[in-house]
């Protein structure tokens, strides 16, 4: 069951250690024991030394099934304790699935509030030096041979996190190099430019290799709700999607990190250096959220 849920489910030993650490901190460890489930219902249908079984509202049916089996086995039914689920600030249930999906942090706070992102925001000049620093690991390679850096980046993410199925590529050269290497990114963003100049190699990007195409407006130096919507749409489906940005996509990594699931891999070009790879994790999301919070509302034209 855990294997079906996500590649990011932690090993039993790691989860057991974390639970025991919490039980100890609450002085409950001497009252508890932890056992792996060998099948979906666990030992509850046959255990004789228990009285109560706890569940959430959406798993109560499993407890009722357990009681039916117990009665058939000549055992007393268990009292069912229904524990209500906790909701976060967005009114949705706080769950490990939503944490892994990159929607909320462990406190249930959304990483990105689309309802509040209702205007164009501009990058302040004070962030220019910060954003020029790689947001992840730099894979070096000559500018005229992007395939060298891309090959290193592909090798680095293969089998890590969500693997090559969850590569998000920003920039024409990066998208083109991935396609040339036989990797169609889950999401690719292009604007026909490199170093803010028209790129002659844009014709090497075949949009037909993507299952979907989206388009949006996003002027240089800003982030728009239209770009956010395109990223949300693209990341909302498992099929490969190409986003064609009218304007500039240089700041898109901030939104993409906030929106992407944990374990996804963001790739973008670092001018004159190579390709940056950032595997999405809570630390990356915290930095992206801090950066976005530092943006200023753009003045109307």
Write the layout of secondary structure elements.
Elements: H1 2-5, H2 12-25, E1 52-55, H3 60-72, E2 79-82, H4 96-100, E3 121-122, H5 128-132, E4 137-140, H6 146-157, E5 167-170, H7 172-180, E6 187-190, E7 193-194, E8 197-198, E9 212-218, E10 222-223, H8 225-235, E11 241-247, H9 252-259, E12 265-270, E13 274-279, H10 282-293, E14 296-297
Parallel strand pairs: 1-2, 5-6, 5-12, 6-11, 9-11
Antiparallel strand pairs: 3-10, 3-14, 4-13, 7-8, 12-13
Helix pairs in contact: 6-7, 8-9, 9-10
Mean pLDDT metric:
92
Principal-axis shape: elongated
Radius of gyration: 24 Å
Number of helices: 10
How many domains make up the coordinates?
2
Which series of helices and strands comes N to C?
Answer: HHEHEHEHEHEHEEEEEHEHEEHE
Strand order of the largest sheet: 4-13-12-5-6-11-9
Contiguous low-pLDDT stretches (5 residues minimum) are none
Secondary structure: number of strands: 14
Summarize this structure briefly.
The chain has a seven-stranded mixed sheet with strand order 4-13-12-5-6-11-9, sandwiched between helices.
Could you list some keywords that capture this structure?
10 helices, alpha/beta, 301 residues, elongated, 2 domains, seven-stranded mixed β-sheet, single chain
Verbal overview:
With 301 residues, this protein is an alpha/beta fold. It folds into two domains: 1-36, no CATH class; 121-297, no CATH class. 31% of the residues lie in helices and 19% in strands. It is built from ten helices and 14 strands. Helix 6 (146-157) crosses helix 7 (172-180), helix 8 crosses helix 9 and helix 9 packs across helix 10. It is elongated, with a radius of gyration of 24 Å.
